[in-house]
Design a protein that fits this description.
The structure is a single chain. About 15% of the residues lie in helices and about 25% in strands. It has four helices and 28 strands. The strands form three sheets. Strands 1-4-7-10-13-16-19-22-25-27-28 form an eleven-stranded mixed β-sheet. A nine-stranded parallel β-sheet has the order 2-5-8-11-14-17-20-23-26, with no helix packed on it. Strand 27 (about 180) and strand 28 (about 185-190) form a beta hairpin. Helix 3 (about 220-230) packs antiparallel against helix 4. The model has no long low-confidence stretch (mean pLDDT about 95).
Length: about 260
């Protein structure tokens, strides 16, 4: 326990009780490390980055690095919330703009060699498997799962409890509670596993009924959204808001 003698911790960094900082770690100026965090050897926490409690950062991982855009600034923030894990050699970049934040939610897992670009938001309990690559401004919903090697275009949204298969290339939004598979990507029905296993997931029957309107009835999207809104069901209203909210378009069958 404690800070290894071979670690470099800036005097202005704040370490909570019970932190473990391994050999050859670097903790830069004004970084905040919550209680019970573990920084494995050779990991780097960049300036001003905030880690909640019980966060684990794997060997060689870098958190809070400068965004990979021409006009990036160190004024952007990066936040890893309680109980999250950043795997070996994964990278999480800070926001590209002053006042913006890249955020990894509580209990989320960003596994080995994954990349979370600037201004992404990863929901609580979401899992990015090995080698997942996210462009800037991607949103991943609560308890979503992205399989190994998945590539996600900038500004794509992945809804809560959704599943994207490994090595997929997503350039459109994936609706909540849904699966995406194949090349080119296709909508592959409701994510039955997550809906029946994950705590807090909505009832499968209600989700299936809402998804059927958008993906099974052959309606144009505006007509499907209208039908969802007319139903008045909270699940249908949530799906309608998601369908209308993005800039990349919704992944759905070609009419």
């Amino acid at each position: 326990m404690g800070v290894h003698e071979a670690a470099l911790v800036h005097p202005s960094a704040v370490l909570g009780d019970g932190c473990e900082v391994g050999p050859f770690c670097v903790v830069e100026a004004a970084a905040e490390i919550g209680a019970g965090c573990v920084l494995e050897p050779h990991s780097r926490i960049c300036r001003g980055t905030r880690l909640g409690s019980r966060v684990r950062v794997g060997q060689g991982a870098a958190v809070g690095g400068l965004a990979q855009v021409r006009e990036s600034t160190w004024d952007g923030a990066c936040e890893i919330q309680d109980g999250a894990r950043v795997g070996e050699h994964a990278t999480v970049h800070r926001s590209a703009s002053s006042g913006g934040t890249t955020r990894v939610g509580a209990g989320a897992m960003v596994l080995a060699y994954a990349h979370v670009a600037h201004d992404c938001t990863i929901g609580d309990g979401a899992v990015l498997a090995n080698g997942v690559q996210l462009g800037g401004h991607v949103e991943v919903g609560r308890s979503a799962f992205l399989g190994g090697g998945a590539h996600v275009h900038q500004r794509v949204r992945i809804g809560a409890y959704a599943f994207a298969a490994g090595r997929i290339r997503l350039d459109r939004d994936l609706a909540p509670w849904s699966r995406a598979m194949g090349e080119p990507p296709r909508w592959a029905g409701p994510n039955r596993v997550a809906l029946r296993r994950e705590p807090g997931a909505p009832a499968f029957e209600r989700v299936e009924a809402a998804l059927r309107i958008v993906f099974r009835k052959g309606l144009l999207l505006d007509r499907a959204v209208e039908e969802l809104r007319n139903s008045g069901d909270p699940i249908s209203l949530e799906l309608a808001a998601f369908a209308e909210g993005g800039s990349r378009g919704l992944l759905r069958p070609v009419l």
